[in-house]
Amino acid sequence: MSQASPPPPSDAIWLSLGSLALSSPLRAEPLGAGDEFPSFDEIVKRQDGACTNTPRTRSCWSNGYSISTDFDAKSPPDGTTVTYNFEISNVTKANPDGSGTSRDMMLINGQYPGPLVRAKWGDTVIINVKNNLEHNGTGIHWHGIRQLNSCQQDGVPGITECPIAPGSSRQYKFRATQFGTSWYHSHFSAQYGDGVVGPMIIDGPATANYDVDLGALPITDWYYTPAFTLNEVAQHSLRGPPSPDNILVNGTHINGINDNGKYARMNVVKGKKYRIRLINTAVDSTFSVSMDGHPFTVLTSDFVPIKSYVTDQLTLQIGQRYDVVITANQTVDNYWFRVSVGTDCGTNAMINSGKQLGAILHYDGAATTGNPTSTSKVTMRTSCNDESSSNLVPFVPNQVPTSVTPSPIPPKTISSAG
Hints:
By secondary structure, the protein is mostly beta strands. The chain has helices at about 40-45, 225-235; strands spanning about 60, 65, 80-95, 105-110, 115-120, 125-130, 140, 170-175, 180-185, 195-205, 210-220, 245-250, 265-270, 275-280, 285-290, 295-300, 305-310, 315, 320-325, 335-340, 360-365. This is laccase. Its EC number is 1.10.3.2.
């Protein structure tokens, strides 16, 4: 059972910076070039209880389930139950980029991003949510979760539920019939722009092998003015949202005002392969991302396992997720994880600051101070186009009917009292 810790006092001025951390070292040797990933047909042939999930067999899961299982048709029988406790509270003096421009936020258990919700394919997930906000109702939406036979757990006030009133609580409960990476967020007005948001991982098989899962890497725009204030301004001005003041990667970043703040850092060991779960949790921004010297092997698009492909850059719209694998095969050093803003459909005050937007990939043994000096051969996109559909090929083939014969609708007589 997993259980989140209680929130700190409402006047806390610190923010924990999410859950991105290097996992415990694995005993297996790093994957080599000869560790080719099997085809769909090969996986089907060996899909049995002896096929378990290891660094060299990520296509497997357990008990006859694997990456070739169509999770829209079936999922593992009931697994364990994982439980989380959320308390949503008002917090003052929040300053995640060190700019000195503190602002009010609404946080889950006093942290930003909110606590990681993690379960395994087939598990039952329970989240107890208590609303400690002074004036707002709330409701938590579990983004992308199918909610098969549990639509009342979808967390959308006004559609599937009434808002959770201040001082009240409710329990969400659903089965993890899919696997992959997603996020949860408030679906009450502009609330998630003020901090009620966090990552969610459903562990399962994958379409490429890797040694270590680095976890979720949420990327968002950041405003120095609370979202509720900006929402009112946008509605009355009829101009839409203003330009964000910064971005945050896993809840932190440097700023364009002073030398404070810090970049998020991903720690790796040379010779190993790492899975990174990219999430765009922004309010109004499209992002493109790349990693100097480290191309991405793309495993999933949202909750859909795809035939893996290699690219040097990915574009994420709001709410989109891509799981990627990188190979730590470069000289021991620090490298930029670069983020660009889709200026074709938005902008950002940090673009012209002269400071790099992004995070740091840190090799064990490299300098622990200073910024990377790596260079990029990639021309970062500013467009807002999705990835090419030719790359996003589901691993499990599903045939779409070429024609549909509608079922006849039986006649119905409507009479009125005369």
